[in-house]
Specification:
Blueprint (H helix, E strand, L loop, with lengths): L1 H7 L2 H40 L3 H38 L3 H6 L4 H4 L1 H37 L5 E8 L4 E9 L4 E11 L2 E14 L4 E13 L2 E12 L24 H14 L4 H13 L3 H13 L8 H28 L3 H22 L3
Antiparallel strand pairs: 1-2, 2-3, 3-4, 4-5, 5-6
Helix pairs in contact: 2-3, 2-6, 3-6, 3-9, 3-10, 6-9, 7-8, 8-11, 9-10, 9-11, 10-11
Length: 369
């Protein structure tokens, strides 16, 4: 295996890979340190007021907060790292001898894409498995120590299956209790059963819903029957988590759902129709597609910074930062169009990589050969 690597990866490749990954790790660490310093200064009073122990702040708050923002910043950090060390190599006339030695520019790109593959793998599996777990830590911290938001949600509609629809006038996430509950069952377009209740509560031990002070109206053509009751337990295909609001200020609640559970929520949402389907799909697709930005931004970064220019690394670094922010803006606009204008979530997620991938290929043609 090592012999195969030696045949495929030469000394110059190792040199570029080490520079790439070393600059990336250093830049990411620097950004995270800066984030922690500013965040501590901003939230120190909140930590003191909430009387959160140091262990909870370190393990829950920053244990979830730092991976989340590292994940968000990773494309930007990757882009800046590529531009910084490549422009520095070009400024020190290290690239010219490489290309002059009958090395094609495509061959010159090999170590970059080997290093970006390492980042892609970390980015990809982090998005799928690690980040949802750490986001759960942030949600737990905010729910326990700093969440002051109203836990009550109002006017909730949900479809449980092809025939059953439910409505809650309000739902309290703290006590897992809904008020003014209504459930309707249809046979096609014909109403067959309508249940109304003053209150419905979830029993976490029995995993059942307790319906209190209820009335049931049975409809069979022109015949109707009314049944009253004080209390009864029933099994419904819904959980308190289906009514959870976004209780974390900084972390979207969907990002704290594991990828496997996210797929299950999407399938249920297609039936229930509570209006969260697009958001759930955007979150799922982003986890799989967003890591490919490592390749796209690497291609752009090398193409614009491999030429030696007057003024050193300042110009390519400035152009790189501008392009990176354009990437983020396009990504945000695509998400808004998906949420508000009906753009399919999959299309919205891949648009930034497609547009900037085409840009990268164009810049590659203009790069020094």
């Amino acid at each position: 295996m090592f012999k195969l690597l030696d045949n495929y990866i030469k000394i110059i490749d190792w040199y570029i890979i080490k520079k790439y990954l070393g600059t990336f790790v250093f830049t990411l660490s620097l950004f995270l340190v800066i984030i922690v310093v500013f965040d501590v200064s901003e939230h120190l009073d909140d930590f003191l007021k909430s009387k959160a122990p140091l262990s909870a702040i370190v393990l829950l708050y920053y244990g979830g907060y730092l991976p989340y923002y590292a994940n968000i910043l990773l494309p930007l950090i990757n882009f800046l790292a590529v531009i910084f060390f490549t422009a520095k190599m070009a400024n020190q006339t290290e690239i010219v001898p490489i290309l002059s030695g009958k090395v094609s520019f495509n061959r010159f790109l090999r170590p970059y894409f080997i290093a970006s593959t390492v980042i892609f793998i970390v980015f990809f599996f982090g998005n799928i498995y690690f980040i949802p777990f750490t986001n759960q830590l942030s949600v737990r911290f905010n729910n326990t120590y700093t969440n002051n938001s109203d836990p009550t949600q109002k006017d909730l509609h949900m479809q449980l299956d092809d025939h059953t629809f439910v409505y809650l006038q309000s739902y309290d996430n703290v006590v897992h209790t809904g008020y003014n509950f209504m459930m309707e069952k249809f046979d096609g377009d014909v109403l067959r059963e309508k249940l109304t209740a003053q209150r419905i509560s979830y029993d976490s031990l029995k995993h059942t819903w307790s319906i209190q002070e209820f009335k049931v109206r049975y409809v069979n053509g022109l015949k109707e029957k009314m049944v009253d009751g004080i209390k009864k337990d029933t099994v419904l295909d819904m959980r308190p988590s289906d009514f959870e609001a976004n209780t974390d200020i900084n972390t979207n609640i969907y990002r704290a759902i594991s990828t496997a559970d996210l797929s299950k929520y999407i399938e249920k949402e297609k039936i229930r129709g509570t209006g969260r389907l697009v958001e759930l799909q955007l979150e799922k697709y982003r986890r799989f597609v967003y890591p490919f930005s490592a390749f796209v931004l690497t291609l752009i970064g090398v193409s614009i910074s491999s030429r030696k220019v007057r003024g050193g690394i300042g110009l390519p670094l400035g152009v790189g930062i501008l392009l990176c922010f354009l990437y983020i803006i396009v990504d945000r606009f695509a998400n808004v169009f998906s949420l508000k204008a009906g753009l399919p979530p999959m299309i919205a997620v891949i648009i930034p990589n497609i547009l900037f991938g085409i840009t990268g290929l164009y810049l590659l043609q203009k790069a020094p050969k």
